[in-house]
């Protein structure tokens, strides 16, 4: 990984909100998401992503990436799954920050009894798909022509990583 100072991965705190919001605006665009992401207010962001609902990667007191996680539904029967999304500052991409976050996410999930991590990725985001495969995710489904972005129909790919081999 770049830089001589070690990276810290920790649960997000209230003080991280503005940096995560700025990172969202940098990372989530029509190549990486169905629509650009811009929060209307800090309060709106915090209602959607409260402190502790992300793991953040910090170096020299600067937040450079995060992985958000939440249960996909409120159903008890679905509580063994976490839906995730990851964002890494463009200046730090392809430097191991994402893999560091993903490793930490798997450890946190396992410690909480989670058996499966799931995510959705646009079919045109080939770099992200390769990253997820490298980190043990497999394709579980494809929603054909789920989005129309700039006049082009784009599939939505559902991927998952099973933390235990003894699936129910």
Assign a percent range to the helix content. 25-40%
Q: What is the CATH homologous superfamily assignment?
A: Gcn5-related N-acetyltransferase (GNAT)
Largest sheet: 7 strands, mixed
Q: What fraction strand? A: 25-35%
What is the radius of gyration? 16 Å
Number of domains: 1
Inertia-based shape: globular
Q: Please, could you describe this protein's structure?
A:
The protein has 168 residues and is of the alpha+beta class. It has one domain: 3-Layer(aba) Sandwich (Aminopeptidase). Helix content is 25%, strand content 34%. It is built from four helices and seven strands. Strands 1-2-3-4-5-7-6 form a seven-stranded mixed beta sheet, with helices on both faces. β6 (138-149) and β7 form a beta hairpin. It starts with 7 loop residues before the first strand and ends in a 6-residue tail after the last strand. The mean pLDDT is 93.
Task: Kindly summarize this structure in a few lines.
It contains four helices and seven strands; from the N terminus they run βααβββαβαββ. The protein has 168 residues and is an alpha+beta fold. β4, α3 (97-111) and β5 form a beta-alpha-beta unit.
Task: Show the helix and strand layout.
Blueprint: E1 8-11, H1 17-27, H2 42-48, E2 54-59, E3 62-70, E4 81-88, H3 97-111, E5 116-122, H4 126-134, E6 138-149, E7 152-162
Parallel strand pairs: 4-5
Antiparallel strand pairs: 1-2, 2-3, 3-4, 5-7, 6-7
Pfam families: Acetyltransf_1
Protein name: GNAT family N-acetyltransferase
InterPro entries: Acyl_CoA_acyltransferase (IPR016181), Bact_Acetyltransf (IPR050832), GNAT_dom (IPR000182)
